Amino acid sequence: MQKENIHIVFGRTSKITLIDSKLIDGNKNQIISLDDILNIGPACDINANEEIQKRIDWLQKIFGDNPNPPVEQDLKNIESIVKDADNINQLFIWTGSCASEMISTARLIHHFSKFDKPIFIANFNTPVRSIHGNIIYPKALNQTATFQVKDIIEQFEQIDKSQLQDWRNLWEKVKSENGPLWILDKKGQVAVEKIDYFDSFILANCGDHFQKAASVIGETLADIHSDIGDSYLNWRLKHLALNGKLETRGRLIEIRDYEVKKISSPTL
After folding, report:
1. What one-character-per-residue DSSP string does the chain give?
2. Is residue 257 part of a domain?
3. pTM here?
4. Are 89 and 216 members of one domain?
5. Is residue 109 located within the same domain as residue 223?
6. What pLDDT tens digit does each residue of the chain (268 aa) get?
């Protein structure tokens, strides 16, 4: 049986981008998407049923039951990769400059590195050209256009033993500290923060007149330059509203269902 290469991407958009690039030979390569956003909520690992359930319960409490979080599917994918390690030639991980992707990479490497197989990591410090010819630096595959993938795929770097240990250390750190929110600090390192870390950014984007929650969240995402996602910010925005920090109009459900504004000052 011919050994195959495994390409790990993060999220369905990234998988579609890589497939549409037509740079991956499906006869020799398999593309697997890991979709759980690991920089929010309690950490979990394979064969840790209590931790897994705690993570599922936390995500469903915050974001609702539909759709179900991809916690278990990601773990099954990791188990499958580890189980089939003898039939894997090389592992390519399309890790961007995002806390979630870095943590997911650390968890995978923690399990796969013991098989002494070549592991390559994407280099998203690679300059690519936009459709208008400008030089840009996409942070991750989900920010990369299909025609730009060829520039990234040529810049994969094999990680050495020291780097492997750094990735394993990161996963041990995430598990031991088990914080509710992880971001990239100013040095590009994964760091833990309090669950309300982005609340001040959200409040700063709320005005004296009602505006769509989607607008507030969009402006906040632009400000924080983080891979936290609009679902998390929607949860925090609703939390602020329910705790009397903002006035609302509409149903506090999805970001297009309601509007928010600052609390009106009483007139004298």
Report:
1. ---EEEEEEESHHHHHHHHHHT-S-TTTEEEEEE---TTBS----TT-HHHHHHHHHHHHHHH-SSSPPSHHHHHHHHHHHHHTGGGEEEEEE---S-HHHHHHHHHHHHHHGGG---EEE--TT--EE-TTS-EE--SSGGGS-GGGHHHHHTT-EE--HHHHHHHHHHHHHHHHH--SEEEE-TTS-EEEE-TTTTHHHHHHT--SS-EEHHHHHHHHHHHH--S--HHHHHHHHHHHHHTTSEEEEE-SSSTTSEEEEEPPPPP-
2. yes
3. 0.92
4. no
5. no
6. 456 999 999 999 999 999 999 999 988 899 999 999 999 999 999 989 999 999 999 999 888 766 678 999 999 999 999 999 999 999 999 999 999 999 999 999 999 998 989 999 999 999 999 999 999 999 999 999 999 999 999 999 999 999 999 999 999 999 999 899 999 998 989 999 999 999 999 999 999 999 999 999 999 999 988 888 888 999 999 999 999 999 999 999 899 999 999 987 655 5
Q: Residue 242: which domain range?
A: 199-262
Q: Is residue 190 part of a domain?
A: no
Domain harbouring 171, CATH code: 3.40.1360.10
